[in-house]
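quick one before i forget lol
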Amino acid sequence: GVHLAIAQIHEHQLHWAPAIEEYKAELAMDPENAMALAHLGHACTQARDPDRAIQALDKLLASNPSDGQAYIDLGKAWTLKGDDPKAIAAYEQALRYDPGEVDVHYRLFQLYRKVGDSARAQTHLAAFKEGEAKQKQAFRESMAGLEGEDKKGTN
């Protein structure tokens, strides 16, 4: 709807408060709008309102339990609230649905280290480093491909 479109414009400009108001207006018209719930959860997390984020994300995940990004935002919200076990559970769930999320490994490294689980912390640090190296290599290959195309175009 129109409120969703306006909210996304605010969100892209990092204007969280007006984005949140527009997402809420969209949800008032369509309470089950998964996209509005996902974006509301994300915007509330960014605005450091973890309670509202958790409420929106829990509702979203009740009907869309395989939304990996929602679990990432849920992990961030629980981290903001200082609930490390729930943050860890949310991030672990995110990796079940999207194992390629390299940053989640780093967040889990930090949390496991904080709670004193050095073995799991090291496992996630290694996964983060490996994933980051793969991303850098893919970027280099992509750039090399573009440079090759540029050279072909100038001949």
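fyi The helical segments are 2-12, 16-29, 34-46, 50-63, 68-81, 84-97, 102-115, 118-154.
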